[in-house]
Design brief:
The chain is α/β, with parallel strands linked by helices. The chain is 31% helix and 22% strand. The strands form 2 sheets. It has a 7-stranded mixed beta sheet. A 7-stranded mixed beta sheet has the order 4-3-2-10-12-11-14. β11 and β12 (260-267) form a beta hairpin. It is globular, with a radius of gyration of 18 Å. Bound molecules: fe (ii) ion. Residues 66, 92-93, 109, 164, 171, 203 line the site of fe (ii) ion.
């Protein structure tokens, strides 16, 4: 059978894939308090905020990919990457694609059918501009190329699987709020062989926290959406995932799992400064402005109530907003 021609931005290169069994390995890091920051998207003000959040409670930071996107300015690109790479980090599709020269993958987002062609085409153009910036930083490019695709952390008694996309692909959409709602059985199947209590992911741009009953017990998938962009209607903050023994007073929502809490914590960056910076790098009619400015200014058409999907009776729910 002839192979279907891959469309840049629509499909994932084969090297993006891995087996859920990779998460059964011994842990890569142990900590008492963990912030997982996905989708910073080159927002330097959100980066300042997450650094301060982690410092306040001496927590470990893991950046799980796509910390680059809007940082096409060379100085910004250098600062963001040098700062993030002082911490544990995974590569997302953005880092993977700007570290190489594979134009056939486009942005590497693996966009599903509900994302329109015009948006996919603009994403490919954003990636091309960012790659041009990255070409000026050979050392950083090599470091991005060498980042892992997944990580296993232990916080208290919990094994945390951290990825950019899902349990099978760097840019997978199985842990998107859309697929978790329409086809939860797909995520359920990939959880079975992973030996993980919490999967923390990002990539799909909207947050969700959903639990599953498995032979291992209650397993949680927590997608933080974006740390560097608003995630809910009429809001101006990003989100990070926090896992610790004590609840945070800042948490928007969360749940208890064993002795630990897993929470969505707002990343309250300087909105005015971020919009001004974004407009300078991506003026009107640029691909990023057309695709993202409205969301950065007003948030997406998505509400907190849609993100929180905790059904298991043992899940002591916390809601602060
Ligand atoms: Fe991504």
């Amino acid at each position: 059978m002839p192979r279907r021609r891959a469309i840049p931005g629509r499909s994932c290169p084969p090297h993006y894939g891995y087996s859920p069994a990779v998460f059964t390995r011994p842990v890569d890091l142990r900590t008492r308090s963990l912030f997982i920051v996905g989708g910073l998207y080159g927002n330097p003000f959100a980066l300042e905020t997450v650094l301060a959040l982690a410092r306040r409670e001496n927590a470990t930071l893991v950046f799980n990919g796509d910390f680059n996107w809007f940082d096409a300015d060379s100085v910004e690109f250098q600062t963001i990457n040098e700062t993030v790479l002082k911490h544990a980090a995974l590569r997302g599709n953005v880092e993977t694609e700007i570290a190489g020269e594979d134009e056939g993958a486009g942005c590497g987002c693996g966009y599903p059918e509900w994302v329109g062609d015009a948006e996919v085409e603009r994403s490919n153009r954003i990636l091309e501009r960012l790659r041009e910036t990255a070409r000026g930083f050979l050392g950083l490019r090599a470091r991005l190329h060498d980042l892992p695709m997944h990580l296993v952390a232990q916080v208290g008694g919990l094994r945390i699987g951290i990825a950019h996309g899902d349990a099978e692909s760097l840019a997978g959409w199985q842990f998107s709020q859309e697929t978790l709602r329409e086809h939860p059985e797909r995520a359920q199947a990939s959880l079975a062989g992973a030996g993980i209590d919490v999967f923390a992911c990002t990539h799909t741009c909207l947050p969700v926290m959903q639990d599953f009953a498995t032979p291992r017990g209650r397993v949680l998938i927590v997608n933080n959406g974006a740390a560097g962009m608003p995630n809910f209607r009429n809001t101006h903050f990003g989100l990070a995932t926090r896992i610790a023994s004590r609840p945070s007073t800042d948490a928007l929502y969360g749940t208890r799992l064993g002795e630990m809490v897993v929470e969505a914590v707002p990343v309250r960056y300087d909105q005015e400064a971020w919009l001004a910076r974004f407009d300078r790098v991506w003026p009107a009619d640029s691909p990023a402005n057309l695709s993202y400015r409205k969301r950065i200014a007003c948030g997406p058409a998505y509400d907190i109530e849609q993100a929180l999907r905790i059904g298991a009776p043992t899940g002591a729910l916390t809601r602060a907003a």
